[in-house]
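User: Once you have settled down, look closely at the record that follows, taking as long as you need, and be ready to discuss the fold:
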Amino acid sequence: MVTLSNSSKSFVTTQPEWTLNGALLTHGEEAVARVAQGPFLWIEGAWEADVSILPVEVPEGMESIRLNVRVTPDTLRRWRDVGINPFIEARAQLKIHWQSAKAGRVDTLTLL
């Protein structure tokens, strides 16, 4: 457990219980990529995981994408308070990011 001492609403945050590992990204009804995710680690005030997006079948010009996915305790709390499924929301945001990501560059996606 980690306590955020610099927060006016100090609280204990726990590691996310969900993962994107094995999730499929689709184009229409067709699965075009699979997500491989490492464990969430506490880094500079947010939970962060290494993520790779791997094409299911490698069409011409499609390459794997690597990125860091970050989610803050505030985002996790907001999702919980309004009843958002974190897996579905994270996968949707990852798919949007993936559509404009460039291979060979490691981006950071902070989930909102």
Remarks:
- The beta strands are 2-3, 12-13, 24-27, 30-37, 41-43, 46-55, 65-71, 107-110.
- The longest helix spans residues 86-98.
- The two ends are 22 Å apart (CA to CA).
- The longest strand covers residues 46-55.
